[in-house]
Specification:
Layout (H helix, E strand, L loop, with lengths): L2 H21 L4 H4 L4 E7 L6 H17 L3 E2 L2 E9 L7 H11 L4 E3 L4 H14 L2 E4 L16 E3 L5 H13 L4 E7 L2 H16 L3 E8 L7 H10 L3 E5 L2 H13 L7 E5 L7 H4 L7 E4 L10 H12 L5 H19 L7 H10 L1 E4 L2 E5 L5 E11 L2 E12 L10
Parallel strand pairs: 1-3, 1-4, 4-5, 5-6, 7-8, 7-9, 9-10, 10-11
Antiparallel strand pairs: 2-3, 11-14, 12-13, 13-14, 14-15
Helix pairs in contact: 3-12, 4-5, 6-7, 12-13
The structure holds P-hydroxybenzoic acid.
Length: 396
């Protein structure tokens, strides 16, 4: 065969493989053993940078544990730093979908950025696995057969804290968060549970994302004198709030509670300022599940870092994709069978076994946790097997 003929054949196969995807012909890329292209779109800079790293590590650990392959096929990673910037979300997602032609999108942390990814996933039919962003709409009004989440909705970990506080006789609460989707939805979840259990919201305070100038807000809180404050913050912003709260003399005077993102992944950075803080979340460091111990050991050994909830969610995204691709033996073009397998998967997660709701969000236990030393220690179950209400989801 001449050089030209060889080139021609390769070109033909490439074109035929591309056409097969559209025309439903046998999947040639699959037949030729091509790698599965995974697009990781996560924050690697800014206040959520550490969260993006933990998710990436967790995902790659799951792939390594299944022999570096999924459904028998090798993996190729494409990575984009989304900077937690919603205004760049469309361009960044298109880099992966249009330029790199990934088979699967994995991302992201920030709800506003995730909305851009959801839009493109819905338009192009690309499989999207969300390993953090809690935007209620992603598995609510905008739910879709090709959109799955391995983390939570913003409503989910916040809602149970309302009853926990009201049952303790805490009746007057001020809320504080960044003014964007995740913060607002988390506060709404808390309010729903709290008001139902007899509580009253005295004031809702906000600052723009990712601003961390808390001083005037803390002065205002001191003058309102609520029974407690419920917050949504995460990453570097959460660490800063915890330190400022102590420096302002509020620690020990007014109870500080939040969705558990507040204290996850930052305990080394904040020292004793976090001691005793109570939060609700779907994971706790020392949780006694069959998987947690080995997961924590393997993660620490591989990355020389302690895992947190974000690492768990990334790991579970890898487990979910592995479970789906196993059933179709790596043929990602068999979308119907792939999605059916992902819907049915029972994920043996470090957080405990969880299943997928009809809207493609985890049905999971929400734990009450308390910071003891460098650990988010589980002290109880705030809500057993909690499913998001998935308001507005019509799976077509
Ligand atoms: C979100 O934007 O949905 C978000 C970000 C960080 C978290 C949790 C939720 O820790």
């Amino acid at each position: 065969m001449s050089k030209n003929q060889a080139f021609g054949r390769r070109e033909f196969l490439k074109t035929a493989a591309a056409a097969a995807g559209v025309a439903g012909l046998p999947n040639l890329a699959f037949a030729q053993g091509a790698k599965i292209k995974i697009g990781l779109m996560l924050p690697y800079t800014g206040t959520y940078a550490q969260l993006g790293v933990a998710i990436t590590n967790g995902f790659k650990l799951a792939v390594e544990e299944s022999g570096g392959k999924l459904g028998g096929r090798e993996i190729e990673y494409f990575t984009v730093d989304d900077e937690s910037d919603p205004s760049k979300a469309t361009d960044n997602t298109n880099k992966l979908v249009t330029r790199d032609k990934v088979d699967v999108l994995v991302g992201t942390v920030h709800s506003g950025v995730a909305m851009g990814m959801v839009k493109i996933a819905r338009e192009t039919g690309t499989l999207l696995i969300i390993p953090n962003a809690g935007s209620d709409a992603a598995t609510g009004a905008l739910c879709a057969p090709n959109i799955f989440r391995t983390s939570f909705t913003n409503w989910q970990p916040a809602y149970p804290m309302g009853k926990v506080l009201a049952d303790r006789g805490i009746k007057k609460v001020v809320t504080l968060t960044w003014k964007y989707g995740a913060g607002e939805e988390s506060i709404n979840g808390f309010k729903e549970g709290f008001i139902k259990a007899g509580g009253t919201i005295m004031k809702e305070l906000y600052l723009p994302f990712p601003n961390v100038e808390f001083q005037s807000l803390l002065t205002e809180i001191a003058s309102i004198k609520p029974d407690a404050v419920f917050v949504f913050f995460a990453g570097g912003g959460g660490a800063k709030l915890i330190k400022d709260w102590q420096a302002a003399g509020l620690k020990g005077k007014i109870g500080l509670y939040g969705a558990g993102f507040l204290t996850d992944g930052i305990l080394d950075a904040v020292g004793d300022a976090a001691e005793g803080l109570e939060t609700t979340l779907h994971y706790g460091d020392g949780i006694e599940t069959p998987k947690n111990k080995t997961f924590r050991l393997n993660y620490a050994k591989t990355f020389k870092l302690q895992p947190d909830v974000y690492a768990v969610q990334g790991y579970d995204a890898g487990l979910l994709l592995a479970a789906g691709l196993k059933v179709v033996s790596g043929d990602i073009s068999k979308k119907k069978e792939l999605y059916a397998a992902m819907e049915k998967a029972k994920i043996d997660s470090p957080r405990g076994v969880w299943t997928m709701s009809k809207s493609h969000n985890p049905v999971q236990d929400i734990y009450l946790r308390k910071v003891v030393g460098k650990e988010n220690k589980v002290t109880g179950v705030a809500h057993k097997a909690l499913a998001d209400p998935a308001r507005g989801c019509k799976m077509g």
